[in-house]
Amino acid sequence: xxxxxxxxxxxxxxxxxxxxxxxxxxxxxxxxxxxxxxxxxxxxxxxxxxxxxxxxxxxxxxxxxxxxxxxxxxxxxxxxxxxxxxxxxxxxxxxxxxxxxxxxxxxxxxxxxxxxxxxxxxxxxxxxxxxxxxxxxxxxxxxxxxxxxxxxxxxxxxxxxxxxxxxxxxxxxxxxxxxxxx
Length: 182
Description:
Layout: H1 5-21, H2 32-46, H3 50-58, H4 65-77, H5 81-94, H6 99-111, H7 115-128, H8 133-143, H9 156-159
Helix pairs in contact: 1-2, 2-3, 2-4, 3-4, 4-5, 4-6, 6-7, 7-8
């Protein structure tokens, strides 16, 4: 993506128009329409059009767990915690093998000072994914009253918009006199 915000917005609008052009295919193919709305919602969420994203997520499939997690993150930011929990429950129901869903759900609960519920969510995640080391470490951290670190799930974690990615330091290439080969 270009650093220019206007160009980014134009590209996002173009992508949404392309997706909307495919909506008539939903009449002939099962679940196409709801998946397209899920993609539209994700694009709008990434460009911080939260009201447009929520409208699209309402029409999306319940099985699109990442769309449901993004919807839950919007509800979290709007402080509608009951709707957030419903959306995250849908996300972990259909994306139960995706550890980010469990971790993001627990993170949001921890931010609301619901430590016991967060521990239960991570425990459910470990039950569903007994070989997932990231979830096991998160469970251990919560059991020891430590902070839940989301760094194992980066960069997907940042797409939910719950935390901003760290600012990257500019890379300076050595200074001074350049020497060439002779």
